[in-house]
């Protein structure tokens, strides 16, 4: 596994796991915010920001003998299970994917250093907005998963 200068690297807090994404794939990722209740809990915040990319577009570099812990999140509002991975060393979410649909991966945007993240173009589960949250300007809002527009 080699990285080049055009790869963009993101890592967890303890550094056990690093995701390497070629800058071209990084630039063509679909950036999204998800406000579903499970993302809220997983992020410990109001939403998760994810970069949606083909699973073939990233390389995971882990410290020897380690790999991210997997949690099958079967209680999702969408009715589909999401496999969430996180670092066992520091608890940082790494990436997730829909169970049985691993060809598309949702990389946690917070792994990457500030100043390089694209603005989200999709905002999911707008029905869960807190009363003081403003929809992100320029992003397509969906009440639930993609395809479910707000009423
Ligand atoms: Zn870690
Ligand atoms: Zn979510």
UniProtKB/TrEMBL annotation:
One of its GO terms (molecular function) is carbon-sulfur lyase activity. Gene3D superfamilies: glutathione-dependent formaldehyde- activating enzyme (gfa). Keywords: Lyase, Metal-binding, Zinc. Residues 8-133 form the CENP-V/GFA domain. InterPro entries: CENP-V/GFA (IPR006913), Mss4-like_sf (IPR011057). Belongs to the Gfa family. This is Mss4-like protein. It comes from Leucosporidium creatinivorum.
